[in-house]
Amino acid sequence: MTKKKIGILGASGYTGADAVRLLARHPNAEITALTANTHAGKAMSEVFPHFFMLDLPKLVEWEKVDWTQLDAVFCGLPHGTTQEIIAAVLKANPGIKILDMSADFRLRNKDSYAQWYGHEHRALELQDEAVYGLTELYREKVTAARLVACPGCYPTAVLLALVPLAKAKLIDVDDIIIDAKSGVTGAGRGLKQNTLFSEAGEGLSPYSVGSHRHSAEIDQEIGAAAGSAVTVNFTPHLIPMARGEFCTSYVKLNGATPDDLRAELEKAYAHEPFVYVTKKGVLPQTQNVRGSNYVQIGVVADRIKNRAIVLSTLDNLVKGSAGQAIQNMNLMFGLPETTGLEQIVLFP
Fold first, then answer.
1. Statement to judge: residues 166 and 282 lie in one domain
2. Phi, psi torsion values for 306, nearest 5 degrees
3. What is the Cα–Cα distance from 87 to 110, expressed in whole angstroms?
4. Residues 46 and 71 both lie in one domain
5. How far is C-alpha 22 from the chain's CA centre?
6. Which of 25-39, 186-200, 237-251 has the lowest mean pLDDT?
């Protein structure tokens, strides 16, 4: 197969950089355009020195890219700005494949988007078209899509752990408590006081308590699986490491046992290349998935009767973002789903 010509919008951010890292060794991809308006004119290695060995195109303003020459574009821009830029890209090249890693097309309900993101959606015709890109749940739709809205990192970890259980009616979806923790790359690369080393390096900080935007995605997808409206209790925390994510979900059982939950998850992911359910007594750990596209899920019996604890972990920049986007790109181009994504976990 001829290599697909790839562009990356927002290549100076962490998710854009990880897309570069993974696509640079993808056998069917050629990176031909990188945008970063604030760093336009620079070499990628000036912005990310660890790319010193790669021959990459210089960063340019997004308006200067000839989108008609590309087969796919990954978007790592912040929410809000993404909608109009993607609309412009698709107008220039209606046949291009879009892998959006922002939040702009994840929510199906336009009112929900306005509620959580503070303004009306500016590309409603594309919002209706977008496919929610949690690969394991929407593989067939992703394969046929032009625009894929890749999930947030927290929803990916939570939904892979809970959707099969909600669909099988093994848990009470009205009683879900999620304690989530992410490395500081989840907060982006911009200069912020709470992510300075001296502020984040030796502490654990909750943020967006009771109001994190990823809650809307989790509600949407668990609700779709359960067939009813759902509102979860979700609290995220910032932990002092660069990458990685761990979600602990406390659930009430619907006449099931923790072993039933584990068996259901094992059945759901028996043939999935990147999702692993740990054996009884084996606990997932962030260091088991670092730098990879893999997910670990475990189930433990709670000491409270009729409750269980579901544990899930992934790398927030890979399966939680750029890796899942590449997984979806592979499907969209008819490639083996695992192409370019079988890196062994980086440990220690």
1. yes
2. 65, 25
3. 17
4. yes
5. 15
6. 186-200
| Residue whose C-alpha is closest to residue 108's, from 166, 149, 78 | 149
Instruction: Answer whether residue 129 is part of any domain.
Output: yes
- Report the pLDDT value the prediction gives residue 159, as an integer from 0 to 100: 98
Residue 9: strand pairing partners: 75
Domain span holding position 204? 154-316
Task: Name the pTM for this structure.
Answer: 0.96
Residues with a known catalytic role: 153
136 and 68 housed in the same domain: yes
149, 107 contact by CB (below 8 A): no
Q: Which two tokens stand for residue 184?
A: 């500081």
Residue 138 phi, psi (nearest 5): -130, 35
Residue 85 contacts residue 92 (beta carbons within 8 Å): no
Instruction: Read off the pLDDT of each residue in 193-219 and give the average, rounded to a whole number.
Output: 90
Task: Give the domain CATH number at 71.
Answer: 3.40.50.720
Identify whether residues 159 and 134 lie together within a single domain.
no
Q: Dihedral, CA atoms, 266, 267, 269, 270, nearest 10 degrees? A: 90
